[in-house]
Amino acid sequence: MYTVSQAEALTGIPSTTLRAWERRYGIIAPRRTEGGYRLYDAAQIAMLREMAARVRGGMRPAQAAASLADYRPPEPARAAPLDAGTPDLVAAAASLDPAALRETIDAAFGAAPFEEVVTRWLLPQLRLLGEAWESGRLTVAQEHFASEGLMAVVAAAFRNASGESRGPTVLVGLPAGARHQLALLAFATCLRRLGPNVLYLGADLPTEDWVTTARGQRARAVVLGVYSPADAAAATLVVDAMAESSVTVWVGGTSGALVRGATSLPDDIPDAARQLNRSLLTGRA
Fold it and tell me: In the chain, what are the domain boundaries?
């Protein structure tokens, strides 16, 4: 089953349009969780893709919906077990085939809740992807191809995660010069799903912008992704600049321990999000 954010990423249809098509044309009837959130099955995702294709082909949405009355989505393939090596992102990256990449990502994010997919599949696959690039088995183009496909899915999940949150504000992003966003965006998504008002600021943010944004948004905490010694040096500048404020600075990533004056988060992304959320709730952050 897929959440509305996953359905948006998998179909390319904005979540507002998904809801409008459901309401106006009744082509699908997603299940609802106890909390009222929509869940889409594989057949409904296929139906939405087909309707989107017909609209792109020139049909009006109402015509496309009517033309789908006799449409039967193909039988979905049996889901592969979710583990560190399956579905195989490296193979999808090597193919440079958008359909193969989409099927690989669909299979992973449809197999388990977002947090479980991050821990059991996304992080191990990112490591495998990096190793394949370093060994020469993947080109830069192939690695970027896979990373951009993943970013689209995780970004959609972030946009739809507790968008009405009224919790404390947390700024999440990368210090000046840092550019590896995917794991950090997954963290921001996990944290936002827990309730805080997470503002994701992206890559390569100058130190002065961290300070002015934290002040302007009355942020309670800042989270920096730190993946190299150079990132650590830039993150330390942010910590020093925040020293006179009440904002707590947290760091995560492979070089986070090199940042003096900040609180390190666990390597496991969902655990890191839960730890920070607990600190926010208890007033320690």
Answer: 4-67, 89-159, 169-282
